[in-house]
Design brief:
2 copies of one chain form a homodimer.
Chain A: E1 2-7, H1 15-31, E2 36-38, H2 56-72, E3 79-87, E4 96-104, E5 107-113, E6 138-140, E7 143-149, H3 169-174, E8 180-185, H4 193-208, E9 212-216, E10 218-221, E11 224-227, E12 231-233, E13 239-242, E14 249-254, H5 274-292, E15 298-301, H6 306-319, E16 324-328, H7 336-349, E17 352-355, H8 359-373, H9 380-401, E18 404-407, H10 411-416, E19 429-430, H11 437-447, H12 456-460, H13 480-492, H14 497-504, H15 508-520, H16 522-525
Parallel strand pairs in A: 1-2, 2-3, 7-8, 8-9, 15-16, 15-18, 16-17, 18-19
Antiparallel strand pairs in A: 1-14, 3-4, 4-5, 6-7, 9-12, 10-11, 12-13
Amino acid sequence: MKIALAQINPTVGDFTGNLEKIVAASRRAADLGARLTVFSELVICGYPPADFLEKPSFLARCRTAVDELAAATAEMSTAVLAGVALPAEGETGKRAVNAAVLLDGGRLLLEQHKRLLPFYDVFDEQRYFANTRPQQVVELDGVRLAITICEDAWNDKGFWPRRLYTIDPVEELMRQRPEVHINLSSSPFWHSKRPIRREMLAAIARRHGVPVLMCNQVGGNDSLIFDGSSLALNGSGELIAQAASFEEDLVVVDLGSPASAPGNLPAAAAEENDTAAAYHALVLGTRDYVRKCGFRKVLVGLSGGIDSALVAAIAKDALGAENVMGVGMPSPYSSAGSIDDSRQLAANLGIRFELIGISGLFEEFTRTLEPLFAGMKPDTTEENLQSRIRGSLLMALSNKHGALVLTTGNKSEMAVGYCTLYGDMVGALAVIGDLVKTRVYAICRWLNRDCEVIPRAILEKPPSAELRPDQKDTDSLPPYEILDPILEAYVERYETPECIAKAYGFPLEIVEQVVRLVERSEYKRQQAAPILKVTAKSFGMGRRFPIAVKVQV
Amino acid sequence: MKIALAQINPTVGDFTGNLEKIVAASRRAADLGARLTVFSELVICGYPPADFLEKPSFLARCRTAVDELAAATAEMSTAVLAGVALPAEGETGKRAVNAAVLLDGGRLLLEQHKRLLPFYDVFDEQRYFANTRPQQVVELDGVRLAITICEDAWNDKGFWPRRLYTIDPVEELMRQRPEVHINLSSSPFWHSKRPIRREMLAAIARRHGVPVLMCNQVGGNDSLIFDGSSLALNGSGELIAQAASFEEDLVVVDLGSPASAPGNLPAAAAEENDTAAAYHALVLGTRDYVRKCGFRKVLVGLSGGIDSALVAAIAKDALGAENVMGVGMPSPYSSAGSIDDSRQLAANLGIRFELIGISGLFEEFTRTLEPLFAGMKPDTTEENLQSRIRGSLLMALSNKHGALVLTTGNKSEMAVGYCTLYGDMVGALAVIGDLVKTRVYAICRWLNRDCEVIPRAILEKPPSAELRPDQKDTDSLPPYEILDPILEAYVERYETPECIAKAYGFPLEIVEQVVRLVERSEYKRQQAAPILKVTAKSFGMGRRFPIAVKVQV
């Protein structure tokens, strides 16, 4: 039997558009001889629909969409297996199920429900979905299929040191002697997750001697980026097919042919490194956020620093140079180099560049506030003011020109609060808010691997906010080579200050200073733009801390 | 046996401070002859601790805090029953439990775990807590106690038309023939919840013929306000004791005395109406947010409108007139009345009032942007600019004076996006962000019941943003008498446009226009300050919608 993995990019709530894509991909798969076309988890309504799942009208629309899909594919030679939310049947508990429907010749052959509902990090599935009955193997043309949905396959006792669930739907299904295991996923990207996912599925394939086919969503949805990377493994856990990462794709697997041995895989299977993957993820996440919000154009404030340079480069690759405008907004404390470097960057990228001086506005603010500031010395107030003037200017351009502002802050800044609410934090999307500063540098060096995209001067100057004379980031913060490992240990892995100081050989007081800054800045992060997630633990929905606390470190 | 309900106001993470309060209240209860002192859910670590529960170091600190509490109360004549998170024991699943510990004479008599873990609206408990073993009745001096934690008691099949859980811990405990049922709660306030909670507990008391004692947390924690209102019901479901709402309290119940018949209750039992309750909740929520964040002073931008007037009145009652500063920031479009009315309001409240004209800044922005705006007509850009100038001025005052800015937007504005990101949306806390405009009016009228707090001119003028000549809210929006019912039906109850139009007799196109505005404004709400929750469904953590969607209404 030939099975197609149809990796498409749906939009949450766009039933019409998603169905069109599903029908078109099914038709293409049928033309290629596939007897079954597999789509990703919740592909019909888009993933993640979040609280739309609490609306009865949304679930009712899902049900009619399944009927429409059955009708539209009734005459095709391929069956269709696709994910969708549906109303739950029970009298108790949650009102929705996370389902896979198998449609063939216009009939519903199977409605199967996800059993393991993740509720950690960015996942809230127990908020929405009912726990449901065990899955059953289903036959198509006499071939016995075991169907699981994403997390259902993430509880293998041989693979994980600690399991999150007491049941294992894969084991239950394998007792029913299936010939192939198909997993529908919407598994968001974070760096180094792809090999884990592949090895985990390979371990399952090997343990049961049953091939695994996984179709994963591709595309950006707010903070989440789905990488696709759908794949097929034979019963020995060897890779026999691999779809592209970060773009739509259709891959046909012939389980009956000798080619189900690992053969010549397409180029996509040669996986790029983590740095390249993060860059491609951010390009996709930016493109989809802007377009799914109904926009084409973006604005980036260019400070002459490395963060805004990287964001501009990502924006250009995501949307095309003609849709990106860089805006330099020098203050009296901006170096001449900053403006030249920004201009050079814009030239390298081929994007429009505009310059708006803020000295007049800064003076007018100072004059206006003078009566209320009498006798008080300059402090961070004046630094924040410059930042907020820039924020207001960018938003005015955004309003007038119908272009989204991209926020340029990195994860190190967001972590310690080295950023200004309503100032440099303005914008629709925090493109690199999940990259610590040292990773920003690494990606920029990678971008420059063949030719200079980011001007060398930007890569080489010491980081500075340029909000007062001769300011350097290291005036307020430890060097990033020390700060970033502390942040990754504390923010991403929840290690204690004592453990971090010991593990890295850093002075405890520096670690504790950083931790205090992190804890004190939560209020800023809760008003931040959505951050594109590329690590296992990013700021945003996946990390939920209260503000009004007294943390005893 | 005499049992004390000790309703205290803990702070998340403040183990030292919380333990001090618990020990002091236990001592007072012992002095009043109580043999058992009951505290609220998670009182030792503060509620809700959110992702602190994922830190092993936090759970370890909880464990040592229990030991400290046992030692500190070892010599007292009262046992102590208190809520705390503790590390889970199992090899699979979540790593924490939501526990109640019973300490007597320095020994741990019982560690019991919450079984029903809410995961809807603002609750994420299945994100953190393990499902655990059934509860057991425990004896203290021969009296059989059934102990439940909050949600454990919220699944009564006789009370709820649809239940969320298949098990009922109360029924299981009642089979063990307890003499009293004690519920530790951290049950957040929303208007009209208190009678539901009381009637539900009364139904349970009656059905099993067992008295119910409920100790509820009091205090504000970010968006959530806990009203206290701890109570005792006899086995006939009659109220026999009632603690205060919105303040700390200690109530002693003598179950053995004839007074366990409903007698003369203290004044607190006479419950105020919904309008008054919402006001008191907002005062408490504001006070606790500001103080638990380590601040004393606040700033309120006074526009001359009713929203900022109400926020200033709440701030004054929460923090004292000497800690509130009102700031008027008139533009060329501000009416003379607006300034006079703000001044009058400040005088009524006894707060400081400052005036900062923004015309100079508006002109300077216009001049600065002219080259990029050439040939384009004025539009909402210029309106937003005025709002953002005001936001920047308030934040500058906040930075310089160490005072938090209180945001003044109401729920109607937040719903339809009739507010400016980084403009009037700036601030640390959105005090009235869960009150639709018509409720803002109702509360202001109630505030004025004895004497004029809100100047009559503010109550009587038609709502206007005053961002262009002769602007009125009704230029862009339906009148609030129409808008607010639509919003409550759509946002709070998830009704469809068709149902709403039919139920209220409004034209469908008006309802659909409002719904489109709500859907289009999600990006603004996700960057809003935390909103004090006073309805069953407020914007914020309890309502999670994606931004990049294509909603097909």
